[in-house]
Amino acid sequence: MDSPYSAPDTPESGMADLNQRQAQILEAVRANGAAAVSELAAQFSVTTQTIRRDLKVLGERGLLVKGFGGAFAAPGVARYTYSERHSTEIEIKRQLVEALRPFLFNGATIFVGLGTTFHHLHNVIADFPGVLIATPNLEVIYTCALHTDATVYAYGGYVRNKDTSILTLGGGSRQKFKFDIALIGASAIDRDGAVLEFDPMEVELTREILTQSRKVILVAHEGKFDRKAPHQVTHLDDIDVIVTNSDLRSHLDNATALARLQVVTVAPDGT
Fold it and tell me: What positions does the domain HTH deoR-type occupy (predicted)?
């Protein structure tokens, strides 16, 4: 059965009549999470006044957020489309999720973060009875509700098991959870060990979850390292376990972040 939550690849309405430079500025800001006016002026060989006018147009359309001396990727806008993210490293993501098995247990209360990395998690969860899954990830909600016996809590309400109906609860209910395990992803991991995201709305949610979790597991494939994003969620120092297919030592300037971190490395053959 196909998921009803697959987002179509349609152009954003606000981009319809952008000129070539404005479209390229938008791509540059989204690629790095942020960009300075002076850097953009040098890149496109125009004045800073021209860049500011372009940023004003893009900001008014909600495509980015203007800041002092620069611009940031707009909150609530995905850096990559659903299809782009879903098709990236599909088999690696499946292997990373399989590597979570030793950390799960019957009856666990588990938070699952956003991102396509967790879209095959239901295959693992199905082997652990009595689990409660709490997540804002619609694909995880859909697959776990239909294909496992887990109780699935969507932020906003419960998804009726073996159905797609959300039973709405009153506000503030997510504060009541104490998670045994929090499974989170990242848009980028800097060389100093900072765990980064593009969307400040996602940052706020994840930070809140970290304070409510007994064990935090970061799942990140090799493509997440040495990338940039503007918002820091947490640091590897505050993560308990990282599951990856990368050699962390080659991506960190200071290996002390690995001292207390349990590292699970998935080999290319999935072992």
Answer: 18-73
